[in-house]
Amino acid sequence: MGWALHLHLVAAIAWIGGAFFMFMLGVSLRKKEDQDAVYPRIGPIYGYFETAALIILLSTGYSMISSNGLLDILFSNLSNEVIDALRMKLYIVAVIVVLTVIHMTISLMTLHTEKTPLQRLFSKGSSMGIFLLNLIVLHYAMVLRDIL
Description:
Blueprint: H1 2-28, H2 32-67, H3 71-74, H4 81-109, H5 117-147
Helix pairs in contact: 1-2, 1-5, 2-4, 4-5
């Protein structure tokens, strides 16, 4: 499990750090012209980088769960502090994956075009949801670390 845990942590740093950077960039670039100059250039690079980080997170997370015999336990009726925290973390990760797919789809569809108001709402909403849910996942990761 050692390599998977270390790779998982590096990918988590990249995923959460990247989301934090993009959030701060969005907050600091108030003018539409500035956003139009920056996002089309760094957005695709960020998207590919973050997709790789997410794939690493999902694969190493699955590897650690499977190698520790937790897969069957997660789908059982067993309930304890560790399993409940891990389940909650995984539920939130599932929502993050869905929001990421929504955000990436809209971003790729509108890379060189103007977003409609509905696309803008879903794009910004999914981005904000990913950012906030990342903090909750980080909380559950710390809870699990404290328990174990």
